[in-house]
Amino acid sequence: MPYPSLPEALSQQDIDTDLQTVVLQLADTSIAISQALAKGALAGVLGAAGAENVQGEDQKKLDVIANDLIKAALAKLPAVRGLASEEEESVVACNTDGRYLVTFDPLDGSSNIDINSMVGTIFSVLESSGSGEVTEAEFLQPGRAQKAAGYVLYGPSVMLVLSTGKGVTMFTLDPDSGSYLLTAGNVAIPSDTNEFSVNMSNQRHWASGMQRYIGELMAGKDGPRGKNYNMRWVAAMVADVHRILCRGGLFTYPWDDRKPEQAGKLRLMYEANPMGFLVEQAGGEVWTPEGKILDIQPDHIHQRVPVILGAAEEVTTCVSYHQE
Ligand code: AHG
Ligand code: MN
Ligand code: MN
User: What's this model's pTM, rounded to 2 decimal places?
Assistant: First the structure.
């Protein structure tokens, strides 16, 4: 049985052709990004771009290259009304008659670029009821309103993982044909796990609920949880969440007290919401200490949130410790 192609799989998903073209365009562009990543030092694309993005983070050359490729590809689609990116200060108007808005993290995990480790592209597609001038306000929709969300993982194989609200499907890029082929469907995250993912070096800065929760996992068999846990941290959310979609686990990037005015590190509209959409579609839970991430009414395109996601039972336990 041949693997179905991405266009074939999309045509089965009961979504309009405009939305299909947006997803296909993102998929095509990711192939160009994967080629730039594969050439690495040979193409002189590694290292810093010498600038900061709007969030005060150093941009890598590949952050800028990936951003420009996606922006140019989306801007020429009649279906795309506007876009917002981690690397763009403000929303970008595309085709005012278009119906869809796209938010994206062009390259996630960019500290991994220079060590030839995994990175990804994250995207979220929203529908707009706006006309005329494109405004930030029309982007500020809760994650639950997403029409499609997904990511591309640039790993040993390049994979596209997608949801249009009917479960999660995974596609693998066939380097011979240059096309994405469906390799996994019905993705499901087990409610229980013995694996967690967090940057432990920030432990002393977390809220007491998170200190207690991770402390209990670390205590393993000798602690109240009565079993040993394993820890993994790739430092690219795409790769850490991909592992959770493949074999389960809990991922968190908690609030911490170093920048108490900043809710968390990860960005709501192009990291937490799209990854959260996939995780909920796979049966997992996606929370801040206060509530479900997909229910948050955003107030800014670059808004940050603390994130606790993955295995339903673990997320529920972790959140409950914050509420005591
Ligand atoms: P980005 O490269 O788009 O700025 O995102 C990096 C994020 C996320 O992918 C990852 O989980 C986290 O930052 C890694 O943070 P640490 O550097 O604290 O490990
Ligand atoms: Mn990111
Ligand atoms: Mn990024």
Answer: 0.97
